[in-house]
Amino acid sequence: MKKVLIALAMTSLVAGCGNDDKLYSGVDISSKWDARSVCQTARMLYKRSQGEAAAKPLYSSKCTVSKLTGELPAKSWNTPYAATWPNGTALRVYVDSKGLGLMGISTEGIPFGWNKAEDMTETSVDGHIQICKARLANVGTNIELIDTELYADKSGGKAHFKFLRSPTEQGTGKCLFDTNKVLMVTTDRKADYSLLN
């Protein structure tokens, strides 16, 4: 009987780990700092800084790690990365001899200042908008661009869309992009995030 219970417990534990791994994606900083360890440590640092209430939504949401092209303040030699969550939380992190450090918090996605500023061209903006529309096609039809806003420093911008979820239900979407790529696509439903990014 004990052997059966132990086997069930181990099976449950392995299954739980597999499901947990689906919450982490993106780049690894090093062999020691994979996406999972970066996300978990960044989340812990965020909790220390902002409190348990702010960090709680991050524990059951997917975290993605991406490399940033901008430099850290104070002429740091460390390479910056971002850990991001669907609710818009973005944490700028780096690794040094002491471990993972936190140097930047945003609640509206990755700020454009965290990446290098380059001039946006009309061609690149149009390309980003087409990518955004293609992603929104995963959740709706008749996708229309409402407006586009480029940032003053020309490091990126955002676009707003409207679309039909069904013949009688309309949805709205937002797309954030920098000079190189589309950073994030969101809609008025959080459940759409995994289908868009």
UniProtKB/TrEMBL annotation:
PROSITE patterns named among the record's database cross-references: PROKAR_LIPOPROTEIN (PS51257)
Protein's name according to its UniProt entry: Lipoprotein
Taxonomic lineage from the root: Bacteria, Pseudomonadati, Pseudomonadota, Gammaproteobacteria, Alteromonadales
